[in-house]
Design goal:
Helices cover about 25% and strands about 25% of the residues. It contains six helices and nine strands. Helix 4 links the parallel strand 1 and strand 2. The termini are far apart. Bound molecules: S-adenosylmethionine (SAM). The site of S-adenosylmethionine has 22 residues, from helix 1, helix 2 and strand 2.
């Protein structure tokens, strides 16, 4: 008799449950996007290097942050941009961000970035999102990113050599336990870029891997 395979939960339901049940910590917060969004040792060097990149543009850039989470990161980058749109799949989180942060320069939209049309911008920020998604969803997102000028991508990776892009079911976990991580320039994605530059790498304690931020220039 053939074994029935479990159908994975839709990503929207998974992410909603994560924010309701706080498996990424932060029980004292209404919404909490995880250590990577709040631990100063991770956040400060990230904000510093992205701020430097944004400030290097005489004409400030329009930014679209895909999977903006609780916006602890986004709100620190806004002053260095022309405008900032935060997108996330969790509706209650977007409503909360609108209430707290929306103004003439900052807007939010509830979208599934693997399925919906994305806002226009000069620069995409995609931070610790792909690492939680299946290869099929990553591929659908990447198809839509080819028209942007800059992508600033942050991924949690294993230390040393690793197998890139081992497939997972979308959810709270990442590829680290399979000694794998997302590299969009490697198969099966083979994402084409004009140039790329590592902006920042943070090595985590206790063999928990590293968080790497790469700037991709597409034009
Ligand atoms: C680990 S959090 C990172 C949040 C933010 N980028 C940061 O670094 O602070 C990942 C976020 O991606 C969002 N997300 C995951 N899949 C998504 C999808 N398909 N469309 C839109 N948002 C998604 C989740 O709801 C969550 O808020």
């Amino acid at each position: 008799m053939s074994k029935k395979l479990k159908k994975p939960w839709p990503t929207k339901a998974v992410m909603e449950q994560i924010y309701e049940q706080h498996p990424w910590g932060g029980k004292d917060h209404d919404f909490y996007s995880g250590e990577g969004s709040h631990n100063t040792q991770i956040v400060k060097p990230y904000i510093d290097c992205v701020t430097t990149f944004l400030q290097n543009h005489k004409n400030p850039l329009t930014v679209c942050h895909l999977g903006c989470g609780d916006f602890n990161i986004g709100m620190q980058l806004v002053p260095f941009t022309k405008s900032y749109v935060g997108v996330d799949i969790v509706e209650a989180l977007i409503k909360r961000n609108q209430k707290l942060y929306q103004n003439d320069l900052i807007s939010f939209a509830c979208l599934d970035i693997s399925k919906d049309e994305l806002p226009q911008a000069d620069c995409i920020i995609l931070r610790q999102v792909l690492q939680h998604l299946s290869n099929a969803e990553i591929q659908d997102i990447l198809f839509k990113l080819t028209t942007y000028q800059y992508i600033i991508l942050t991924e949690h990776l294993p230390m040393g050599d690793f197998t890139s892009n081992q497939d997972i079911i979308s959810g709270q976990g990442i590829r680290l336990k399979h000694n794998s991580g997302v590299d969009i320039t490697q198969p099966p994605f083979n994402f084409k870029v004009k140039s790329q530059q590592i902006l920042n790498e943070i090595v985590l304690e206790n063999q928990k891997g590293r968080i790497m931020t790469t700037l991709f220039n597409l034009k």
